[in-house]
Specification:
Elements: H1 7-13, H2 36-52, H3 55-60, E1 63-64, H4 72-78, E2 82-84, H5 99-113, E3 127-130, H6 148-154, H7 157-173, E4 178-179, H8 203-218, E5 235-239, E6 253-254, H9 258-265, H10 268-274, E7 279-282, E8 286-287, E9 290-291, H11 296-306, E10 312-314, H12 332-337, E11 342-343, H13 348-360, H14 366-382, H15 408-421, E12 423-427, E13 438-442, H16 449-453, H17 477-488, E14 491-494, E15 506-512, H18 532-542, E16 547-552, H19 560-565, E17 568-573, H20 580-586, E18 600-601, E19 615-617, E20 650-651, E21 654-655, E22 660-663, E23 666-667, E24 673-675, E25 678-683, E26 691-696, E27 702-705, E28 714-717
Parallel strand pairs: 1-11, 2-3, 3-4, 5-7, 6-8, 7-10, 13-14, 13-15, 15-16, 16-17
Antiparallel strand pairs: 8-9, 12-17, 18-19, 20-21, 22-23, 22-27, 24-25, 25-26, 27-28
Length: 718
């Protein structure tokens, strides 16, 4: 742990830039416990700061807006304790802004937050939070590691800790302080759109991997550089039960005996707390009908009382507004329940004014306000944002070292993680591929970095119009195959027709889910419907060419047809920016060590499996390259497939599959952008960007067109 300066020196240094406080750990984390004298010193400094802060400045410490909804002048006036960039946010509204502009914005906001205040009131530096959920994934050119479901398949906690350290370093390059990661959900229904953010259906695997990522991001609690230098603040999320909602509905309800739920979904949190995690994020979901953002028995009695957490609790995107009796701008219930920071992306002014009034009229006790603000100050002190170590973002040790973004070392680490995450479900002997083989590579994911990276990759939902040019420091899956073939004296041809044989010895078909994030990825069943990959496999097989299926997905899905049509089948998950790691396993230069951290379904209906009835491949299954035992033919019956495509045009914030929005002669992908006199943007109705605000110029027209196989209906809106 970083040594604390003498209290007198600290008090002198913080006359203008105050802060520090204790973050007590559970008794089981003795190594993380600061000495009693250090805790006493922290408490004294925090008490001194609180005694000099006005109600307005205290409340502002609990307000977290997003960068595109406020200005540096707003920061100087209101002094927000923290702020964030949403998944589609960026400096100046440009989500593809270069890393230098992210660092420049960090400086601008920091400088605004520490301008001297009148009357000797302390100016407390702000801190910036980001969703770097598989690497620093909002930044063009950063390393994108496999999503958590792939890391769970590696079974390698040491690897995950190294990934956390690399991610923290790349975050520090851009001057950002705080990462909203790791997700430690125990996903129990794979229909949930956030399944890929979970390491496993097994809570012990999740606990181990989540704690490892925390240690990588923050450093070891007992070390001098804990939360300093190359490290950032981590956040375990989402407390609690997010992976256990009924039918896998995002932000839904979790039901059952509370002790049983805690034993399953609460299991990862003591491990994260023992690892020193500084922040925990409240979950959108309800537990037995009560929204977590307002659930005092769980946020306060369990998380703090039973688990011993003494860091800060941050809300999720307007999650407080979902509490019964609350709105986004009026919700004292959340603070009284145990929330410390409101994530209020756009409506921050209304909430700020309301909270100030509620403190002044006694609705919110002054003691509860001071408790929450004190927790924020404690985390800031531990992270070196207050006291004598405080400095503007660009003056910190790694700031501006842009060569660290996707450095050779980080790319090699990502490639290692990709290779270790590959799970071979079937191999009739075609793997490993001979180095001299003539290989044809087909499928929608063969040469598409956005597709192999999934959601939370430069944009919130990922995919869309993201071309490979947006990922300058990356390799596609085809790149890796071609490189291996060239070194081994073979050939690799990218087939645009998904069926051209061209004298090939083996065909590799790369296919899978299109990118999505959060509720946009919720499903009603587990049937994989896109038949392009299946048809390619069947065409190659009919031509007598052995086939390898490389399946990109954020969860196990029913792919019995594809398993039957292939000679080898590899679950590749969402590998991120180093697709070449897949080829390392296909060619046998790296052993196949990946093992399922989720049960694989035998049926398509979508009921939770978790090792029970309906399991095709159990938890821990995976073949090495020498295992060529045949896989018996699988049933291809699936009632869900007979239902046909949905007639829905738009839902969960996205156009339905195959639906095209046209404005004049142009297209509006997912109803975002400007074209033909139409301007459309994401709008938060009940959840983030679950609706669209559409503005029409005079005479403009919007047309939604369905695919032909869905009984075409063209919907025109003027």
């Amino acid at each position: 742990m970083k040594p604390f300066p003498q209290l007198a020196a600290l008090l002198l240094a913080t006359a203008a830039l105050p802060g520090c406080a204790t973050m007590e750990r559970p008794a089981s984390a003795a190594a993380a416990e600061p000495a009693a004298t250090e805790r006493d010193g922290e408490d004294a400094v925090v008490a001194g700061l609180l005694s000099r802060m006005s109600v307005e400045r205290k409340v502002a410490q609990l307000i977290q807006p997003q960068i595109n909804s406020f200005t540096p002048e707003d920061m100087a006036r209101y002094r927000f304790g923290s702020y964030l960039n949403g998944g589609n946010g960026g400096p100046g509204g440009d989500e593809y802004a270069p890393a230098s502009e992210w660092l420049a914005l960090a400086d601008t906001m920091y400088d605004a937050s520490v301008r001297p205040l009148p009357g000797g009131e302390p100016a407390v530096p702000t801190m910036w939070g980001t969703d770097a959920v598989h690497g620093h994934s909002n930044i063009v050119g950063a390393t994108l590691f496999p999503h958590n479901i792939g890391l769970g398949a590696t079974g390698d906690a040491g690897l995950v800790q190294r990934i956390g350290a690399a991610t923290a370093a790349e975050i520090a390059v851009t001057g950002i302080d705080w990462n909203f990661s790791p997700t430690v959900a125990v996903a129990r229904d794979d229909r949930w759109g956030r399944t890929y953010e979970s390491y496993s259906e097994n809570p012990d695997i999740v606990a181990t991997m989540g704690a490892a990522l925390v240690r990588g991001l923050q450093g070891e609690p007992a070390d001098a550089d804990y939360l300093h230098g190359p490290h950032v603040i981590a956040t375990a999320k989402h407390f609690f039960g997010d992976g256990g909602t009924t039918n896998g509905v995002d932000q839904g309800d979790v039901n059952g005996d509370i002790d049983a739920l805690l034993a399953l979904h609460g299991r990862p949190y003591p491990a994260a707390i023992d690892a020193g995690v500084a922040a925990i994020m409240a979950s959108f979901n309800s537990v037995n009908g009560r929204k977590m953002h307002g659930n005092a028995p769980l946020l306060t009695d369990v998380l703090r009382g039973q688990m011993g957490f003494d860091g800060l609790v941050v809300g999720d995107w307007n999650g407080h507004g979902q509490i019964a009796g609350c709105t986004v701008t009026d919700c004292p219930q959340a603070l009284l329940a145990g929330l410390d920071i409101y994530m209020v992306p756009d409506d921050w002014k209304g909430l700020l004014d309301t909270l100030i009034a509620q403190v002044n009229d006694g609705t919110i006790p002054a003691a509860r306000l001071d408790e929450a603000v004190g927790r924020v100050l404690r985390v800031k002190y531990r992270a070196g944002l207050l006291g004598p170590d405080a400095r503007r973002p660009s003056a910190r040790p790694l700031a501006g070292r842009y060569a660290m973004l996707a450095s050779p070392e980080h790319r090699a680490l990502a490639r290692e993680a990709v290779a270790k995450s590959q799970v071979i479900l079937k191999n009739d002997g075609v793997l490993p591929i001979r180095p001299s083989a003539r290989v044809v590579v087909a499928g929608s994911g063969a040469n598409d970095i956005a597709k192999q990276s999934g959601g939370w990759s430069l944009t919130w939902q990922g995919g869309g119009d993201l071309t490979n040019a947006r990922f300058p420091n990356a390799s596609t899956i085809f790149d890796g195959i071609a490189s291996h073939a060239q070194r081994g004296g073979g050939t690799a041809t990218l087939s645009e027709s998904d069926g051209a044989v061209g004298g090939a010895d083996v065909a590799i078909v790369v296919f899978g889910e299109d990118p999505y994030a959060e509720f946009a990825g919720d499903r009603t069943d587990l049937a994989f419907r896109d038949e392009a990959g299946l048809n390619a496999l069947r065409r190659f097989r009919a031509a007598g060419v052995p086939t390898v299926a490389v399946f990109l997905s954020g969860r196990p899905l029913w792919v019995n047809r594809e398993l039957n049509a292939s000679d080898a089948f590899v679950a590749s998950w969402l590998p991120g920016s180093e697709g070449a790691g897949i080829a390392d396993v296909l060619y046998g230069t790296v052993p196949a060590t990946g093992r399922l951290s989720f049960s694989w379904p035998a049926r398509c209906a979508g009921m939770p499996v978790n090792g029970g009835d309906g399991t095709l491949f159990p938890l821990g299954y995976g073949r090495d390259l020498s295992d060529t035992a045949p896989l018996a033919p699988l049933s291809e019956e699936c009632a869900a497939l007979a239902q046909g495509p949905s007639a829905q045009l738009f839902g969960s914030g996205r156009l339905a599959q195959g639906v095209v929005a046209r404005a004049g002669e142009g297209a509006l992908p997912n109803l975002i952008g400007s074209e033909g006199g139409i301007t459309a943007r994401g709008y938060d109705r009940d959840a983030q960007e679950d609706a669209r605000e559409i503005r029409f110029a005079p005479g403009s027209r919007l047309v939604l067109e369905q695919p032909a196989e869905a009984a075409p209906i063209a919907s025109r809106i003027r």
